Amino acid sequence: MTNTSAHPDDPHYITRSGWLRAAVLGANDGIVSVSSLVVGVAAADPSPRAVLIAGVAGLVAGAMSMAAGEYVSVSSQSDTERADIERERTALAEMPDEEFKELVAIYEGRGLSPATAQAVARELTENNALEAHVRDELGLSEVHAANPLQAALASGATFSVAAAVPVLAAYLAPASAIIPTVLVVTVLALVILGALGAKAGAAPLLPAILRVVGWGVFAMTATAGVGWLFGVSV
User: Fold this and answer.
1) 46-55, 163-172, 197-206 — which one is most confidently predicted on average?
2) Which domain holds residue 61?
3) If you average pLDDT over residues 57-86, what whole number do you get?
4) Contact criterion met (CB below 8 Å) for 51 and 42
């Protein structure tokens, strides 16, 4: 198959942004939320059975919640995009001259001379007017188009896998060491998540790791702080 990339040895990763965002969100939430839940249960009842039941319940409920939430929210985004496209289609049918002038103004605003902007707008309009306006006026493209099912599957799957880490750590650890074991494993899991996210998006490694670990530790600390404030182990 022919490779159409202008630089096949240096590919772009923007096409991964939709599912990668949902995957990292799901994994991060799975690690942090279920880890906090497991630690809270272990503080009250460190028996492996209690910890396992709570962890699995949190995993299943969280995965379903993340998948449903992603699907609903991204569907709302997709509905908005489709509505804007339909409005643009109507505008092109009812007032093509005004829409053409709008396209010319967009290209002039990007630095093209009036003559060049006119020529570019004319050729793109003749080729596919709606596509030109959707891309250059609305800022939409196939790469960035909302995909509810993809986001839901990515988020739900990564939540499940990530949430299983603190659950297994708690289940396999001695009853007297569940809490420190889960905390250490959670931080290590966040480090790995940050590294994998950076690798998948070809982004700098250290900032991604620090961001994921920092916010994850902050979330767990805040949860523990609420428990301490109300005199409850969380």
Assistant:
1) 163-172
2) 20-225
3) 87
4) yes
Going by C-alpha positions, the residue among 161, 206, 181 that lies closest to residue 28 is 161
Residue 231 lies in a domain: no
Q: H/E/C letters for each residue in 115-138?
A: HHHHHHHHHHHHHHHHHHHHHHCC
Asked if residue 13 belongs to a domain, the reply is: no
Q: Residue 91 pLDDT more than 80?
A: yes
Report the alpha-carbon distance of residue 148 to residue 72 in Å, rounded: 7
CA gyration radius, the chain: 24
Percent of the chain at pLDDT exceeding 70: 84
187, 188, 194, 198 alpha-carbon torsion, rounded to 10°? 160
Spatial distance between the Cα atoms of 173 and 39, rounded to a whole number of angstroms: 12
Evaluate whether residue 53 is within a structural domain.
Answer: yes
Total domain count, the chain:
1
9 domain residue, yes or no: no
